[in-house]
Write a structure and sequence with these properties.
Number of helices: 18
Strand content: 15-25%
Largest sheet: 6 strands, mixed
Length: 463
């Protein structure tokens, strides 16, 4: 009897958990509250990957993003769950131990017990790409070094990838190949064997184990590949752009950062461990010249260096193409390339932003240097060459100016404060209204008796 009651209680608790929304893939955006957040996000093994939108009802950008997330939730069901938190209601959740949300909309993702900033653009294709990437194995096997860029970055402009190579894996791969040859030829079996093979490769050496551990943590910020040990080591050097000043490490194995048309960077040092590789990624996980927008501007501008921004007009293709090449060339080999983070920005799309630096559509393309944390910038429309502009800044010929704060909209500020402090704000407004209304009513009786005139006083005395 006791066993039956325990079984019944377990079934009831499971039913409650399922009814609350856990233990099933989500195909719609899930509203989350302080009371349901853990059940949905951190305790549901069926949905281990979440994209979370923190928003406010009055936020225009939040409203614009909503249909995109609705569409993405359906497309990524079973791979990426999407949730939304109304920060005007869930204040303790948005400003508590887990989060310190300061702007709307804020996008974060959850995986492996950690919350991180969503790093890509906020359009449908980018969100789907993110979900697809994060739901796959962090490390892919590369068997043809000549196709490493095609496989790792897929022709994506400004994409960064990391690869590991260790010839000690060779014996492991030969054993795996023989076992794979006797396996079933069905597609599902082939996928299973591919995953098993990748796991054996990764676990075969200390270097590959370190690579895989860090790749899982930073999968959102780049692609990670394992070069097959059957690849001829001599053929790797020219493909990866190694030269006299940028040699492949002499021990035969390496971890490297690759970017198309950019010299390869190798992780150096006597000790290769997770801390060293993670630091290497943090220092290099942005393209030599990246396309700047709302999704990555904060990330790019908070890397300890000023931004060198090439502002362009996308409607002038020939002029923009030439300008882009000049910016990229300086970012790769310019004299002061290490002093800045280089990026390009659409001057038409972001015209309001660039206008605060004195940049106009007629003057494009143009370079501006911005130190965002210090709110300083350097701009001079008369200097057209990228090289000459940066040299003039370094020589002090172009002086810094202070970025002025935009005047706040009083009506918008009042609206935000009113919603944030509901219901007390509503009570205060109603109280103020009642007081004003009461004071405005005409009085039926005078509050104080009228003061008699001198004539009236003398008349009373005569009587």
């Amino acid at each position: 009897m006791a066993a039956f009651l325990l079984l019944l209680l377990s079934a009831l608790l499971l039913g409650i958990s399922t009814a609350a929304g856990g233990n099933k893939p989500h195909s719609t955006v899930i509203p989350l509250t302080s009371s349901t957040f853990s059940t949905y996000v951190t305790q549901d093994s069926t949905n281990p990957l979440w994209l979370l939108k923190f928003y406010a009802p009055w936020c225009g950008h939040c409203k614009s993003l909503a249909p995109t997330l609705d569409k993405a939730a359906s497309a990524l069901a079973g791979k990426l769950a999407i949730g939304k938190i109304d920060c005007t209601v869930e204040k303790k959740l948005c400003k508590g131990e887990l989060f310190d949300i300061r702007g709307y909309p804020t996008l974060k993702y959850y995986r492996d017990g950690e919350f991180s900033d969503y790093p890509l653009a906020r359009d449908f294709d980018s969100i789907v790409k993110f979900g697809e990437r994060m739901s796959q194995n962090a490390v892919r096997i590369v068997r043809d070094v000549e196709k490493v860029y095609e496989m790792m970055v897929g022709g994506e402009q400004g994409a960064v990838a990391y690869v590991v190579y260790d010839p000690i894996m060779e014996q492991t791969e030969e054993e795996d190949a023989s076992s794979a040859g006797s396996s079933s030829s069905s597609s599902s079996s082939a996928e299973s064997e591919e995953e098993k093979e990748a796991t054996k490769f990764i676990q075969s050496t200390e270097r590959t184990r370190v690579f895989a551990q860090v790749a899982r943590k930073y999968q959102a910020h780049g692609s990670f590949g394992l070069l097959s040990p059957k690849i001829d080591r001599e053929s790797i050097a020219p493909i990866l752009g190694a030269n006299q000043s940028n040699n492949i490490p002499t021990d035969g194995g390496f971890i490297a950062r690759i970017e198309e048309d950019v010299p390869t960077k190798f992780l150096t040092g006597d000790i290769i461990n997770t801390e060293a590789f993670a630091e290497f990624i943090r220092e290099t996980n942005i393209a030599v010249m990246t396309e700047l927008g709302g999704h990555n501007f904060r990330f790019a501008s908070r890397r300890g260096k000023p931004l060198a921004i090439g502002v362009y007009n996308p409607n002038e293709e020939s002029k923009t193409s030439k300008f882009r090449k000049e910016m990229k060339q300086y970012a790769v080999s310019g004299e002061h390339k290490d002093a800045y983070v280089f990026g390009m920005m659409d001057g038409i799309k972001w015209d309001k932003f660039v206008s605060q630096f004195g940049i106009t559509k007629a003057g494009l393309p143009e370079v501006v240097i911005l130190d965002a944390p210090e709110r300083k910038y350097w701009q001079d429309s008369s200097v057209l060459s990228v090289t000459e502009f940066i040299k003039a800044v370094k020589d002090g010929e172009i002086e810094s100016r202070t970025q002025e704060k935009k005047p706040n909209n009083p009506l918008e500020e009042f609206s935000q404060l009113f919603i944030s402090y509901m219901p007390w704000s509503l009570f205060a407004v109603l109280t103020l209204f009642v007081v004003v209304f009461w004071l405005a009513l005409p009085s039926s009786e005078p509050l104080l008796p009228p003061v008699p005139s001198r004539e009236e006083e003398e008349s009373k005395k005569d009587k």
